[in-house]
Amino acid sequence: MLIGELAGRAGTSARTLRYYEAQGLLHAERDANGYRRYAEEELRVVREIRTRLDAGFPLADVRPFVACLRAGNDAGHVCPDAAAVLRRRLAEVDGLLTELGAVRNRLAEQLACGAGPC
């Protein structure tokens, strides 16, 4: 499929696809006229990239998931390198939740004090 079709089916822009290709995440063949032609499996790769980016992963952390798909796996998270990224990101999120919980508690305490000092 051509870049416009892939972009439409993936819900992204051609510019984004060219960026993913420049980053080595997406593969395209070139027609004689220079047009990019993508295999059907590249749609799965783009969807995996978008899913991870939408979840807050930096692009560098997406690479193991793409590699896992390219290795023939049905899902991008089943390989050891991708699972390690998931564990690390989960720990980061847990840490942020702990910090936010502490901030919430301080705010609630201040509200409970009313107009007087605590």
TrEMBL record:
<keyword id="KW-0238">DNA-binding</keyword>
<dbReference type="InterPro" id="IPR000551">
    <property type="entry name" value="MerR-type_HTH_dom"/>
</dbReference>
<keyword id="KW-0804">Transcription</keyword>
<protein>
    <submittedName>
        <fullName>MerR family transcriptional regulator</fullName>
    </submittedName>
</protein>
<feature type="domain" description="HTH merR-type">
    <location>
        <begin position="1"/>
        <end position="68"/>
    </location>
</feature>
<dbReference type="GO" id="GO:0003700">
    <property type="term" value="F:DNA-binding transcription factor activity"/>
</dbReference>
<dbReference type="InterPro" id="IPR047057">
    <property type="entry name" value="MerR_fam"/>
</dbReference>
<keyword id="KW-0805">Transcription regulation</keyword>
<dbReference type="Pfam" id="PF13411">
    <property type="entry name" value="MerR_1"/>
</dbReference>
<dbReference type="GO" id="GO:0003677">
    <property type="term" value="F:DNA binding"/>
</dbReference>
<dbReference type="InterPro" id="IPR009061">
    <property type="entry name" value="DNA-bd_dom_put_sf"/>
</dbReference>
